[in-house]
Design brief:
It contains 20 helices and 19 strands. The chain has a five-stranded parallel β-sheet with strand order 3-2-4-5-6, sandwiched between helices. The protein has a five-stranded mixed β-sheet with strand order 7-8-9-11-10, with helices on both faces. The protein folds into four domains: 201 residues, inorganic pyrophosphatase (n-terminal core) (Alpha-Beta Complex), CATH 3.90.1640.30; 64 residues, no CATH class; 109 residues, Diaminopimelate Epimerase, Chain A, domain 1; 115 residues, OB fold (Dihydrolipoamide Acetyltransferase, E2P) (Beta Barrel), CATH 2.40.50. It starts with a strand and ends with a strand. It is globular. The chain is α/β, with parallel strands linked by helices and 576 residues long. Helix 5 runs parallel beside helix 8, helix 9 crosses helix 10 and helix 11 packs across helix 14.
Length: 576
């Protein structure tokens, strides 16, 4: 696959030199900071030391006063409260956070705990978001207030149905609203019109945290009472692939610190079954912890995830973590088979091979893995991708996009063919009648073709700076460590070094990976170990005896208790 490279512009030598002098560091570090919009010593201090003190006032969020008043009324009156959330990591962490908060930190005037419970819809019988089945359950069990987390902003019809049964809603969502705004008691969503909240990219769990923060503030209680919930917010931020900027970065940093120092029993149990015996960062959440939480809703029931995350003791959590680990193993097997089938469908169809988008339908696919497989197909063929399977008589699908292309808007342009849809710029979900799929596939591809550029269809690597090996210093690595936690909007710095040579020790290892040791001719004694995952196809370039260029980020490899710098290579190309 072709790769295009983009070298990020610097801020100019004067700005770089000035900031480097003010914070007593190297010009390369100052350049990296300026590229992230950090230009003063004060901003640098806030960036490298994220603090809960810098969180925004929760009452800046539209309807927060209404939300606090409504739940205060519910608790005071002894109403039954249901916390309702989606079955993915963001939904289950949000439900776990707010359900635990209600039980532990919100007594009414008589000192009684709220009468509350939680509900996670079944992926297969109910689908995503607010469900009629869930509302009926609430009505039958006399719940009069539902707190919806990570869903609800596009469920106007369901909210109307709930009101007909005497049930109010408080919506805590972060998805884009539609034209029809639900008639809820309060809507907490920074993306809704006329919401002046300064930060728009919170997760659903993050909004639940802000709701709890507002309740504590109204009760004149310290925010520190929410410290045990920070690990849950961190899971949601890392797993939901939201920008790691502003409040998300603060909450992620504080939450990761909590995971590494005092994780709740459920998270500790997940770390143990996942073999995590090292310091946890964003990567460990995304690749080890989050898939196991998600697996419950994909294979069995998302309720298990909430039960795990709210477990009081490790003894209670351990068997649940084992069940989620087993679910994840099952999920991986189904995922692998589905991926092979999806690739075969594309490669055997000339129209699909040459289209600017991918829309695949197989009624036998497992609904729990189509989102994961859509991501894999997007990565392989690099174009907007939608996978559909049959569920409850109609087709349900997951969409994944490529850089800079708004797949949500493209799907919205086909809304006349859809039953329901929702999501973000880069990921969305939809339902459609099976008889409309062929027409949808053609219309969707026409829209994508008209909007997408050739550049968008080629993966891009953003390079922070071209450097020589001599610039890889202890000072640089110390600052790179301070830049964490990483994620969208604050990715690990990527560098390029040109004209390097193989020392003769490079080799193919594992399943198609390259282990390299390379040097620059001007400093032949300065050599770094490199690992290039899934890049065995570049071995001939490395062994040619000719200079080549490597694009990489700087990491640490721990071997037998010792840390050493290792370059994680993202791309190898012939030298020019």
């Amino acid at each position: 696959m072709n790769i295009r490279k983009y070298i990020k512009p610097d801020a100019g030598s004067n700005a770089i030199i000035s900031l480097a002098r003010e914070i007593s560091t190297e010009p390369l570090v100052a350049r990296l900071l300026l590229q992230r919009g950090i230009s003063t010593p004060g901003e640098v201090e806030k960036f490298i030391n994220p603090s809960l003190e810098n969180l925004h006032n929760p009452f800046l969020m539209k309807d927060m006063e209404k939300a606090v008043a409504r739940i205060d009324l519910a608790v005071s009156a002894g109403e039954k409260i249901m916390v309702f959330g989606d079955y993915d990591v963001d939904g289950t962490t949000g439900v776990s956070l707010f359900y635990s908060f209600l039980k532990n930190h919100f007594p009414n005037a008589d000192g009684k705990k709220p009468d509350c419970s939680f509900y996670i819809p079944d992926r297969y019988s109910e689908g995503y978001g607010i469900s009629i089945k869930g509302i009926d359950y609430a009505a039958e069990n006399r719940f009069s207030l539902i707190i919806a987390i990570d869903c609800g902003i596009k469920s106007a019809d369901k909210i109307k149905y709930a009101r007909s049964k005497g049930i109010d809603f408080i919506i805590c969502d972060h998805h884009l609203p539609g034209d029809d705004i639900p008639a809820a008691s309060a809507i907490l969503d920074p993306k809704q019109k006329n919401c002046l909240y300064p930060y728009k990219e919170l997760t659903g769990c993050g909004i639940a945290y802000k709701f709890a923060q507002a309740i504590l503030a109204k009760q004149n209680l310290p925010l520190s009472l929410l410290d045990p919930a920070l690990d849950l917010v961190a899971l949601s931020v890392a797993a939901d692939i939201v920008p790691v900027t502003g409040e998300n970065r603060i909450l992620l940093a504080e939450g990761i610190n909590r995971i590494n120092t005092k994780p709740r029993p459920g998270i500790k149990a997940l770390m143990d079954v996942g073999g995590l015996n090292r310091k946890v960062s964003t990567g460990e959440i995304v690749f080890v912890i989050a898939p196991r939480i998600n697996a419950a809703g994909r294979i069995d029931s998302g309720r298990k995830s909430v039960e795990l995350l709210t477990a009081v003791t490790y003894e209670d959590a351990a068997p649940l973590a084992k069940e989620l680990n087993d679910d994840n193993s099952t999920r991986k097997d189904i995922d692998a088979r589905t991926t092979i089938e999806a690739i075969g469908m594309i490669e055997s169809d000339d129209w699909l091979l040459n289209a600017k988008s991918t829309v695949l339908f197989n009624p036998g696919w497992h609904k729990g893995v189509i989102g994961i497989v859509a991501s894999r197909i997007q990565e392989k063929f690099y174009r907007p991708t939608i996978l559909l399977t049959k569920s409850n008589g109609i087709a349900a699908g997951s969409a994944r996009s490529v850089r800079d292309f708004d797949i949500y808007s493209a799907i919205e342009s086909c809304s006349n063919l859809l039953e329901q849809f929702g999501g973000h710029k880069y990921a969305a979900g939809l339902t459609i009648k099976t008889e409309n799929i062929d027409e949808f596939r053609k219309k969707f591809d026409e829209i994508v073709t008209g909007l997408i550029s050739d550049e968008m269809l080629v993966p891009r690597i953003d390079i922070d700076a071209e450097i020589s090996y001599a610039e890889i210093s202890t000072e640089l690595f110390r600052w790179i460590d301070l830049f964490a936690p990483y994620g969208p909007g604050n990715m690990r710095p990527v560098f390029e070094t040109k004209g390097v040579f193989d020392t003769g020790y490079s080799r193919i290892v594992g399943n198609g990976h390259l282990k390299l040791k390379v040097f620059e001719p001007v400093r032949p004694a300065l050599r770094f170990d490199c690992i290039a995952f899934d890049q065995a196809g570049s071995f001939n370039i490395v062994k040619s005896g000719q200079p080549f260029n490597i694009t990489y980020y700087i990491d640490v490899n721990n071997w037998q208790g010792y840390d050493e710098i290792q370059l994680k290579v993202k791309h190898i190309e012939e030298g020019k």
